[in-house]
Amino acid sequence: MFRLICRPKESVVSSLQDLPPTCFILVMDNSGCILVKQIGASQCTPMNRSLSSHNSYAKDELHLPKALPMLATSRSLPTHAGTGLQKVKNTVQFLNTKIQKQFQQVAPLESKGTSRRFTEREIERATDKFSPLMVIGHSSHSIVYRANLKDGQVAAVKVLKITNLSREELLQEVDILSGLNHEHIVHLLGYCYSKDMQAVVYNLLQGSLKQNLKCLRWKERMNVAVGVAKALRYLHRSCSPPIIHRDVKSSNILLSHHFRPQLSDFGTAMVYHQPQKSLATREQHHVVGTFGYMAPEYVMYGKVNEKTDVYSYGVVLLELITGKAAIQKNMEFKHGSLVLWQARSLLSHGLSEQLIDPNLNEDYNNEEMQRMMTAAQLCLRDSSSRRPSITKIIKLLEEPQYWVKVRKEREECNDEFKSSREPRIQRCED
């Protein structure tokens, strides 16, 4: 895989033309969210294309423009793009067709009473003309406002930055959330969908786990861990077909007055249709999510199932344990992940005590801490087949006897592994 430098004046399409199909462009914003992942469109193979010193894709770093206007409409594409142009045109047509179908599904929701469609004027009035004083949160792709609705209800309005993908994400989120009902999942009140505004209206909460993490006591952190796990169990087991969130992270976990968690932001969630058991028929998906939280098989191959969320949940557990963000912005890119840089290494070498957040001031239940650490280690296994289901993780967090059983099985497994290596070690010493 080549990492690509794309100068501000270059288009993504022309960059795709320079890359062979064995390579791809990965575009992330400043917060680590993946915006675009596209394969190369060049007809030349790496074997017969010469790599001159001025070819931008030979650089070993990633630096891409924040905005991608070339993907917005087919009219903005260069006429000489050839195969790449046709691929992008097909993609745009596919997205437009998909959005139209989604909107046809979402439109009847208001008549059913499951969701209300707000006008631009209603949203503007409720947020005091989008006053900065009403802002309660923001990300690279949205701003969240406190809103005083006409009926006196207080709500949160997430206003999306309009991009070529925002319409699809809005309708996807409204469509999925309107069919969910769980105490640990945000409650959808309505949405606004127009040319100039795309917004989702939720029940108002007190902020995200990311914003409040260092202030939480151990009991509250444990409640957050269990609550989010139950939300995922509902999505994976109670919904038919299952729903995969695909972006479980601390900023998408909102907290109530009593620090009860509610999972939010279903713009990239997907309904998961079970594939055939044959490896040849496993479906690959467009990668979306946030660097530092994404499972390795998802990043590398686009493979998605319930274990994708389990891995992301494991990263959240590490944040609850350490009090640190999953992405350390003051570190080098390759060491920016809390998982890759420190946590898994300490857990695997029995140095877990060094992970515990000093802000807890040693005020925590030691057995509960050990259970959460065990759960995090199991969730973060590289092989998705070796990760437990979220149901087993809940048992691990809530049932001490089950944790004892899991710990005993792991110790026996480690003893068997060590004994199988002893003769080989002895021979090396001789």
Protein described:
Helix content is 39%, strand content 12%. It has 430 residues and is of the alpha+beta class. The chain has 3 domains: 12-101, no CATH class; 109-203, Phosphorylase Kinase, domain 1; 209-398, Transferase(Phosphotransferase) domain 1 (Transferase(Phosphotransferase), domain 1), CATH 1.10.510.10. The two termini are 43 Å apart. InterPro entries: Kinase-like_dom_sf, Prot_kinase_dom, RBK1/2/STUNTED, Ser/Thr_kinase_AS. One of its GO terms (molecular function) is ATP binding. Residues 130-404 form the Protein kinase domain.
Q: Topology, please?
A:
Layout: H1 12-18, E1 24-28, E2 34-39, H2 83-106, H3 109-112, E3 116-117, H4 120-126, E4 135-138, E5 142-148, E6 154-160, H5 166-177, E7 188-193, E8 198-203, H6 209-212, H7 218-238, E9 243-244, E10 253-255, E11 261-263, E12 270-271, H8 296-301, H9 306-322, H10 338-348, H11 366-379, H12 390-398, H13 400-429
Helix pairs in contact: 1-2, 2-5, 7-9, 7-12, 9-11, 12-13
GO molecular function, one term: ATP binding
Pfam families: Pkinase
Domain Protein kinase: 130-404
Provide key terms for this protein.
430 residues; alpha+beta; Phosphorylase Kinase, domain 1; Transferase(Phosphotransferase), domain 1; 3 domains; 6-stranded mixed beta sheet; two-stranded antiparallel ribbon; 12 strands; protein kinase activity; Ser/Thr_kinase_AS; RBK1/2/STUNTED
